[in-house]
Specification:
DNA-binding, Arc Repressor Mutant, subunit A, two-stranded antiparallel sheet, homodimer, 2 domains, 2 strands
Amino acid sequence: MNIFIDYHSRTPIYEQIKEQIVLDINRGVLKADEQLPSLRQMSAQLGLNINTVKRAFSELEAQGITYSVAGKGIFINADAQKNSMYLQQALNDVKTAAINAKTMGADREQLLTIINELFKGDESND
Amino acid sequence: MNIFIDYHSRTPIYEQIKEQIVLDINRGVLKADEQLPSLRQMSAQLGLNINTVKRAFSELEAQGITYSVAGKGIFINADAQKNSMYLQQALNDVKTAAINAKTMGADREQLLTIINELFKGDESND
DNA sequence: TTTACTGTGCTATTTGTAATATCACAGTTG
DNA sequence: CAACTGTGATATTACAAATAGCACAGTAAA
């Protein structure tokens, strides 16, 4: 539950919360059926109104990422990782950004370097 | 002058206009000292208020991308291509998107493929 | 000079929505 | 019952995008 809010961003706060929850799930920081702090705790910790946090989790629940039980709390959905929508979206964002960069004059090597730098420390398979 | 506005996007319309003008310059669609349609023509064609289009070009002019002469029109600046700010921004966007995709579970090969597909038709250097 | 364009500048208003502020209400647990 | 939980609704505030309208000044050609 380490959420950082960029108040200068054009991205709404509730969207930033959604993104970081999904990222934490995919990082393995948040696991299936794990309970999150209560809405009131999270909103207090982040210095936000409960409604702002509530909106984030209402939308996450609508996307099957979390589920909530009145009186108990909010939990990570067991098949949240299976939700490939965000991966597909992320891949598409890479493509869009790459197309833009190419148009701006970036060459193939520049872009490949960015990708390779990202996986530099990963010695898992080679 | 083929500008497409996505009204459902969170990106403001004037920002979309700016981006597409810069892209057209880097594509070579718009060339140095080329005159653009008048603000009134563009706003009419796009179905937008003149002030919205005006804002886009005021900011482009502030960045040295275009210049304007009262009574004449708006033109592409000769050294617009030299403006590397947008390339740096575009490269940074690729990196950010790639980091996200990796977190979501994308592997190196997936991302490299996206880049390579993009340059598939380019036989200029190999 | 007149006419019809061009961009510029300004003010005001409308509109949408993020974020906040309070409520009341219902489910869960001890 | 008490103290938590999430839910739902409404109202308000705040901010920025987008619109609307007007006056003004520069350019160019009739």
